[in-house]
Design goal:
Number of strands: 4
Number of helices: 2
Helix content: 25-40%
CATH superfamily: TusA-like domain
Shape: globular
Strand content: 15-25%
Order of helices and strands: EHEHEE
CATH topology: Translation Initiation Factor IF3
């Protein structure tokens, strides 16, 4: 997400998972652990692992989570994924 000046900003979230420097499968494992602790949270996952570009969307699809946004990390170092709980009325 960017503001009107083109500056990357963090989308609204409840918790940041900074998994930069960790390789597959650790970013997705951390994401899974966080959703088990509090399934209702909107999580902003930060990672610099190239495998996450395919792993995170696949994990969301398998687990019924919503990948609301993906883009550069707010500080420009790596990628960011906003993962939300299922929509109301949908199972997890």
């Amino acid at each position: 997400m960017t503001d009107t000046d083109g500056v990357v900003v963090r989308p609204p979230h409840d918790r940041v998972l900074d998994e930069r420097g960790k390789r597959c499968p650790m970013p997705v494992i951390s994401l899974a652990r966080a959703t088990n602790v509090d399934p209702g949270q909107r999580l902003l996952l930060l990672t610099d692992d190239a495998a996450a570009l395919s792993d995170v969307p696949a994990w969301c699809s398998l687990r019924g989570r919503v990948l609301e946004w993906t883009g550069p990390a707010p500080d420009g170092m790596g990628d960011a994924f906003l993962v939300a709980p299922p929509a109301e009325g949908e199972g997890s």
